[in-house]
């Protein structure tokens, strides 16, 4: 099992360090940091999350600009250790509200106490904030959330580009509000990451939705919560082996390939062993929810779905040392919805020396950039309303005379965006019921949808 | 550290109760007396804050151990928060203040009987973390009670505590019967307790050679029942324990699988992977193809879902899937799309996805796959691009029907003229040519257009190989080769060797004027202007061949080569099976067997006096006088080693060692016919290359040491129908750079005859890079048969130097100087010390020298200290300090080794295991 747990800043400072077995030297944090920083002897090379140096196994995850590391001497389950690290992160977030170097340092006594209850002799014990509450006595000291940059309305869903986001609010689950009483409220977020690859002729090569229903509960007394999803939801083997329904677009049904649930979820009306021939009429999750933020359900869908954006890129020669790239983006969703922070990135031919951008007349909230060092152009649109279309012309100056490869050297176009109140899978929460303790009990309920681009790529 | 902890703490106090802040500003009194005063305050809050400050100071590395007594005094409190803080402090300082730690014992024992279960559990948990013998003694009674506590939280904590205690003092655990109590906990009503008991037992089993924890059908039932109820982590412990269970029959296996399958739906990836492991293992016992098919179908979606997790988890999942698809390709045969790379995947994920794409590539999906690879080959990351290009080549080699398409894509990529893409493409095209000879030469012209852009050795060598191989079809092959020749002396060895061979091929195929001149230049260069023995030897062999019998040269050089096969299932089946048994462990991520990276350094139980011997020295508390009792040393004859080392008989007449150079010039090409005098004595040589593999030629052999020199003792047996002659031998690069010191002296072998020989070997000739390995790859050829390749193991004992004996003083000094991380231990269960004197004699005859011996009173075990030395490049050597613990006359030897090069220790263990058999 694990020998040590530590948290390092990206500069290598030791923020938290706990030794459970005394079989790995204390210098491990330093050895680890040097190895990760200069993987393969080079700065910038990304180290894999699991590696062995001199008989010590190092496992780490990067979250919120911090490195969470565990060491072990034995043949442990790496998924267990990595999962545990992620859970420690989640527990820390639940307790501290905001997870960063400052909040960890301010609360280190609390964090050590949490760690002692979470891990004993290197074995994970419990990572449930709910359970931990009865064993942990230190009070969190919250830091002023307003001072943390990047927490605007859209940015709530933007923390960490890779990790599944969803911190609905940045306040501690445990700490009391300044007013003394906690506000009774619950957040349910349906967060979807979509990956689409378009061929050069505009066909969809692969498409996938990775979704999570995330819940963060500030309710006292752990009432039972009922969450009902679409009536036409079906779960079974989708993907390549799904011949019966393959390619038909699902006829309006929401067909998930696979899903899994938090351990507190009871599936009263649901039999997972049945296959896709089963139409689930009434899908209810009945549960006594734990405190803190946790995923109620993760799901994956490869059924075809309506893509939110179509991109039409073309590149053509316009002279011996010149080429023109035209990018057209069309928002395919309803005009009541607006996408935020839309960014398109295109690697340009290596011989590009200059790129001049020509936005449409009257375009606003848009900006363009060309990075000479890696020949990458970027087009950012602050807001894109459903149904709208935008165009950008880029005139390229090349250092080499045109060649046949100009198309091969350009692209692919990759796109980033966040679309609040939109989800690609059409999975919906039909209702969110909280079993009432009394007549006057009526907590705030928030159900929110958001879709992010994960890998949204258009080939040229 | 940029923000010191106490400063952070200061902010903390400031926000909580502003008036406290003054205590943390630098005071006139100094911090420590100030804290002392506060710790002894009569106000609880003040005490608590003081302890917090102490801990703040402790975590930033300040020494606050002088406050030990004051902090321990705060321990007797009902306030849990304060108690926990004190315990945290104790864990940290008890080791350095063992005497003071005793002060805390009473409170610990009292706390372990507190009415509050949290306090009981806390006391036992903390005591287990304090690795001080005196505390451990007092731990037993509370532990005994807590294991049978009414509260499950206390019991689950106590269960883990047994593992802690076993780690400190295994005997104590066994004597006090804790193992039995722990086993009883498997039947506990609380699943958390069951899970922790399983985890503790599994760990204890791992460090013990006795059977302690075995799953019977009775416990199996209990575990399966607890599986549904316990936390996700407990599920992992139980599943991992289940994976060691051998099902009685197919029904048993199906029953387990049925109970485990629902775990695949769990959101925790560790649960999913451990469940997959159990299912895969039980599948081996299931014969019904229908059941297996259904299981495969059920495993696919959860495995694919792992690829949607965080990238770190994805990486682990992909490494595991890589193994799973090698064994059961059907599981994911239809899911190749999910392994397509996303543009924002981290590079380590992309690389793994590529591997799996190659493994899943089939005639059905190759078009799609090639489209992806082609796209990846134009991405930014150079390593990824290279791997994508190689992937195309590997698909061509794997799928015959798709080879042409693959070559088409490679040619398209070459046309983009990106330097590293072109070079990588040429390397894989060479492999494609080897796989499909004489099929795609039409593309050579395109390749030749890119000659001048090649600057990497492997690409150059590949291109030169292609030119040589197809010299007769390339009109200007001579010109092309000449262009490389200009830089011959500066080229790396790899390129030089290829140039040499290509020039010979060209000459043999087109013996015209220009190639003739060229061959002269190359041979001159390669024989006279180089220090590389490989190159020189090869050049001499060609030279002699060409000058004696050009036709024979043709037969040798232009002989048909064995075609290569697809290497995308690289792991051999035994390793693969071992790794599949280790799914969901680190072994499955590294793709290495666990023993290659796990070295249980500290868990090895050291009896008390032993501890003093080694660690007492470390802390410098012992006197420097010899911890090895003199009486023991004296009990072994002082000249024992000496006598022993002189003992081995002189080897029968050393083989002739002709000067290589003159030999080659003067040697008649007729093979040496008189049998070599050197008939190796000793035990029969193991077969290293069986007749079944060598079309009737069988080779036995072992590396041995004679008179300070390494020899390869070999025996050749001709079971073919005709004579075999013209034997030659060559060694691949290896860890010790072993190479033949002279030609192989094997006579012409008539059918049914056998010849023995001793081949003198040199060290550090062709060193391989990478971690030390005992692998020695050998190639043997003769005139009648193709070249045979096989692998032998380098026994480290053949390298033990004669001067490996250490003085006792320097042994101790070296042992002390080496950090603990350089100590590696292994149990050799089948090794045997039948009598100390005989063993000592036997070992020193193999240059493993005796230093001292002592006896463990309580276990009656003997401990032997030995040393040996292994040569290392440029005249240096690596010392090994060995400690053998064994009960004389009964099998099982514990071997500990300390060395500056611990990575070598597996080889040493093998050697000792061999010597003690």
UniProtKB/TrEMBL annotation, chain A:
N-terminal signal peptide: none
GO BP: intracellular protein transport; vesicle-mediated transport
The protein's name in its UniProt record: MHD domain-containing protein
Location within or outside the cell: Endomembrane system
Coiled coil: none
UniProt keyword annotation of Transcription regulation present: no
Transport found in the keyword field: yes
Entry keyword set: Membrane, Protein transport, Transport
CC per GO annotation: clathrin adaptor complex; endomembrane system
Lineage: Eukaryota, Viridiplantae, Streptophyta, Embryophyta, Tracheophyta
Family per record: Belongs to the adaptor complexes medium subunit family.
Pfam families named in the record: Adap_comp_sub (PF00928)
InterPro entries cross-referenced by the UniProt entry: Adaptor_comp_med_subunit, AP2_Mu_C_sf, Clathrin_mu, Longin-like_dom_sf, MHD
CDD domains xref list: AP-4_Mu4_Cterm, AP4_Mu_N
Location of the MHD domain: 183-459
Domain of life: Eukaryota
Automatic annotation (TrEMBL), chain B:
Residue span(s) of domain Beta-adaptin appendage C-terminal subdomain: 800-917
Entry's Gene Ontology cellular component terms: clathrin adaptor complex; clathrin-coated vesicle membrane; Golgi apparatus
Keywords per UniProt: Cytoplasmic vesicle, Golgi apparatus, Membrane, Protein transport, Transport
Compartment(s) of residence: Cytoplasmic vesicle, Clathrin-coated vesicle membrane; Golgi apparatus, trans-Golgi network
Keyword Hydrolase in record: no
One Pfam family named in its UniProt record: Adaptin_N
General function of this protein: Subunit of clathrin-associated adaptor protein complex that plays a role in protein sorting in the late-Golgi/trans-Golgi network (TGN) and/or endosomes. The AP complexes mediate both the recruitment of clathrin to membranes and the recognition of sorting signals within the cytosolic tails of transmembrane cargo molecules.
Clathrin adaptor alpha/beta/gamma-adaptin appendage Ig-like subdomain domain mapped to chain residues: 681-791
Source organism (scientific name): Ceratopteris richardii
Example of a GO biological process term: vesicle-mediated transport
Subunit relationships: Adaptor protein complexes are heterotetramers composed of two large adaptins (beta-type subunit and alpha-type or delta-type or epsilon-type or gamma-type subunit), a medium adaptin (mu-type subunit) and a small adaptin (sigma-type subunit).
Source lineage: Eukaryota, Viridiplantae, Streptophyta, Embryophyta, Tracheophyta
Protein name: Beta-adaptin-like protein
SUPFAM superfamilies attached to this UniProt entry: ARM repeat (SSF48371), Clathrin adaptor appendage domain (SSF49348), Subdomain of clathrin and coatomer appendage domain (SSF55711)
Membrane topology: Peripheral membrane protein
Segments for region (Disordered): 600-631
Record-stated family: Belongs to the adaptor complexes large subunit family.
Database matches in PANTHER family: ADAPTOR COMPLEX SUBUNIT BETA FAMILY MEMBER
């Amino acid at each position: 099992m694990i020998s040590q747990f530590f948290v390092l800043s990206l500069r290598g400072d030791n923020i938290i360090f706990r030794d459970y077995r005394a079989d790995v030297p204390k210098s491990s944090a330093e050895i680890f940091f040097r190895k990760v920083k200069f993987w393969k002897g080079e700065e910038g090379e990304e180290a894999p999350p699991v590696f062995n140096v001199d008989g010590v196994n190092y496992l780490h995850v990067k979250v919120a600009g911090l490195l969470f590391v565990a060491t072990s001497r034995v043949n442990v389950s790496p998924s267990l250790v990595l999962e545990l690290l992620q859970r420690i992160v989640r527990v820390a977030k639940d307790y501290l509200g905001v997870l960063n170097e400052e909040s960890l340092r301010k609360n280190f006594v609390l964090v050590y106490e949490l760690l002692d209850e979470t891990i004993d002799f290197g074995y994970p014990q419990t990572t449930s904030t709910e359970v931990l509450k009865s064993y942990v006595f230190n009070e969190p000291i919250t830091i002023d959330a307003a001072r943390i940059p990047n927490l605007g309305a859209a940015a709530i869903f933007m923390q960490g580009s890779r990790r599944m986001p969803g911190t609905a609010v940045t306040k501690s689950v445990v700490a009391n509000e300044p007013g003394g009483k906690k506000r009774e409220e619950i957040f349910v977020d349906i967060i979807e990451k979509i990956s689409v690859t378009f061929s050069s002729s505009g066909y969809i090569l692969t498409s996938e939705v990775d979704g999570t229903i995330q819940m963060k509960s500030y309710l006292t007394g752990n009432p039972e919560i009922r969450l009902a999803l679409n009536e036409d939801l079906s779960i079974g083997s989708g993907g390549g082996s799904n011949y019966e329904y393959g390619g038909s677009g699902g006829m309006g049904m929401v067909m998930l390939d696979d899903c899994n649930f938090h351990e507190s979820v009871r599936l009263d009306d649901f039999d997972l062993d049945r296959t896709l021939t089963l139409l689930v009429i009434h899908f209810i999750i009945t549960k006594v929810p734990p405190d803190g933020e946790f995923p109620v359900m993760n799901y994956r869908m490869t059924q075809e779905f309506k893509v939110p954006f179509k991109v039409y890129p073309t590149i053509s020669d316009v002279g011996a040392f010149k080429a023109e790239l035209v990018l057209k983006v069309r928002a395919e969703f309803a005009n009541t919805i607006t996408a935020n922070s839309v960014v398109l990135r295109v690697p340009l031919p290596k011989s590009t020396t200059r790129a001049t951008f020509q936005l449409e007349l009257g375009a606003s909230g848009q900006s363009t950039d060309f990075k000479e060092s890696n020949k990458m152009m970027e087009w950012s649109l602050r807001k894109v309303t459903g149904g709208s279309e935008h165009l950008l012309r880029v005139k390229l100056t090349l250092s080499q005379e045109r060649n046949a490869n100009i198309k091969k050297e350009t692209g692919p176009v990759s796109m980033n965006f966040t679309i609040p109140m939109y989800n690609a899978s059409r999975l919906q929460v039909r209702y969110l019921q909280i079993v009432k303790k009394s007549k006057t009990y009526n907590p705030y309920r928030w159900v929110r949808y958001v879709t992010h681009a994960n890998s949204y790529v258009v080939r040229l | 550290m940029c923000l010191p902890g106490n400063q952070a703490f200061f902010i903390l106090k400031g926000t909580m109760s502003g008036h406290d802040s003054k205590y943390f500003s630098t005071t006139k009194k100094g911090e420590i007396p100030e804290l002392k005063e506060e710790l002894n305050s009569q106000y609880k809050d003040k005490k608590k804050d003081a302890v917090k400050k102490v801990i703040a100071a402790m975590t930033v590395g300040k020494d606050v151990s002088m406050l030990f007594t004051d902090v321990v005094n705060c321990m007797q409190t009902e306030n849990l928060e304060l108690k926990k803080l004190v315990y945290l402090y104790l864990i940290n300082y008890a080791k350095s203040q063992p005497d003071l730690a005793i002060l805390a014992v009473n409170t610990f024992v009292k706390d372990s009987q507190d009415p509050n279960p949290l306090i009981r559990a806390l006391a036992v948990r903390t005591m287990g973390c304090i690795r001080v013998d005196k505390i451990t003694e007092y731990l037993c009674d509370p532990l005994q009670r807590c294991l049978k506590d009414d509260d499950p939280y206390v019991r689950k904590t106590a269960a883990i505590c047994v593992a802690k205690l076993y780690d400190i003092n295994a005997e104590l655990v066994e004597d006090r019967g804790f193992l039995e109590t722990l086993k009883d906990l498997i039947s506990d009503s609380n699943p958390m307790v069951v899970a922790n008991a399983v985890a503790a037992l599994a760990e204890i089993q791992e460090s013990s050679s006795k059977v302690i924890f075995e799953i019977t059908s009775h416990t199996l039932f209990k575990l399966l029942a607890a599986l549904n109820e316990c936390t996700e982590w407990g599920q992992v412990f139980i599943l991992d324990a289940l994976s060691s269970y051998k099902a009685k029959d197919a029904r048993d296996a199906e029953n387990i699988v049925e109970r485990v399958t629902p775990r695949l739906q769990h959101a925790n990836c560790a649960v999913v992977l451990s469940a997959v492991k159990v299912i895969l293992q039980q599948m081996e016992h299931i014969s019904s193809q229908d059941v297996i098919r259904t299981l495969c179908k059920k495993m696919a979606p959860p495995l694919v879902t792992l690829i949607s997790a965080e990238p770190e988890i994805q990486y682990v999942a992909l490494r595991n899937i890589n193994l799973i698809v090698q064994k059961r390709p059907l599981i994911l045969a239809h899911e190749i799309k999910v392994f397509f790379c996303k543009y924002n995947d981290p590079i380590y994920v992309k690389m793994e996805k590529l591997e799996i794409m190659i493994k899943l590539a089939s005639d059905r999906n190759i078009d799609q796959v090639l489209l992806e690879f082609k796209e990846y080959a134009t991405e930014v990351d150079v390593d990824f691009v290279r791997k994508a290009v190689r992937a195309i080549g590997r698909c061509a080699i794997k799928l015959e029907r798709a080879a042409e398409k693959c070559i088409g894509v490679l040619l398209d990529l070459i046309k983009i003229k990106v330097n590293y893409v072109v070079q990588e493409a040429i390397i894989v095209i060479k492999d494609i040519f080897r796989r499909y000879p004489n099929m795609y030469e039409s593309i050579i012209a395109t390749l030749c257009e890119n000659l001048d852009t090649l600057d990497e050795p492997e690409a150059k060598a590949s291109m030169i190989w292609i030119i040589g191989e197809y010299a007769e079809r390339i009109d200007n092959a001579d010109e092309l080769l000449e262009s490389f020749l200009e830089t011959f002396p500066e080229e790396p060895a790899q390129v030089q060797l290829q140039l040499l061979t290509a020039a010979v091929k060209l000459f043999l195929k087109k013996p015209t004027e220009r190639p003739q001149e060229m061959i002269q230049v190359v041979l001159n260069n390669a024989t006279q202007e180089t220090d590389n023995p490989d190159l020189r030897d090869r050049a001499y062999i060609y030279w002699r061949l060409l000058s004696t019998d050009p036709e024979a040269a043709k037969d040798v050089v232009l002989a048909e080569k064995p075609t290569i096969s697809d290497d995308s299932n690289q792991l051999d089946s035994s390793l693969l099976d071992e790794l599949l048994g280790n799914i969901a462990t680190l072994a499955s991520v590294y793709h290495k067997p666990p023993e290659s990276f796990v070295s249980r350094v500290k868990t090895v139980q050291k009896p008390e006096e032993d501890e003093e011997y080694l660690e007492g020295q470390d802390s410098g508390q012992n006197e420097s006088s010899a911890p090895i009792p003199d009486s023991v040393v004296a009990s072994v004859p002082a000249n024992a080693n000496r006598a022993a080392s002189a003992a081995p008989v002189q080897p029968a007449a050393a083989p002739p060692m002709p000067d290589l150079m003159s030999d080659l010039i003067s040697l008649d090409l007729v093979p040496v016919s008189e049998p070599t005098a050197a008939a190796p004595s000793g035990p029969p040589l193991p077969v290293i290359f069986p007749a079944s593999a060598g079309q009737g030629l069988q080779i036995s052999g072992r590396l041995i040491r004679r008179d300070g020199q390494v020899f390869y003792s070999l025996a050749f047996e001709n079971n073919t129908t005709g004579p075999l002659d013209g034997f030659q031998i060559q060694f691949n690069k290896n860890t010790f750079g072993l190479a033949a010191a002279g030609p192989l002296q094997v006579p012409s072998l008539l059918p049914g005859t056998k010849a023995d020989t001793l081949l003198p070997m040199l060290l550090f000739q062709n060193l391989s890079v990478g971690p030390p390995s005992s692998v020695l790859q050998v190639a043997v050829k003769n005139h009648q048969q193709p070249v045979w390749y096989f692998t032998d193991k380098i026994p480290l004992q053949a390298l033990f130097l004669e001067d490996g004996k250490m003085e006792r003083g320097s042994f101790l000094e070296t042992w002390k100087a080496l950090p603990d991380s350089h100590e590696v231990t292994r149990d050799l269960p089948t090794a045997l010390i039948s009598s100390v004197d005989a063993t000592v004699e036997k070992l020193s005859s193999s240059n493993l020298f005796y230093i001292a011996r002592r006896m463990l009173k309580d276990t009656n075990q003997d401990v032997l200290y030995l040393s040996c030395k292994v040569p290392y490049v440029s005249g240096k050597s690596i010392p090994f300090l060995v400690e053998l613990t064994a009960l004389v006359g009964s099998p099982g030897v514990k071997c500990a080794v300390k060395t500056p090069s611990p990575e070598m220790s597996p080889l040493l263990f093998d050697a000792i295991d061999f010597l003690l058999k």
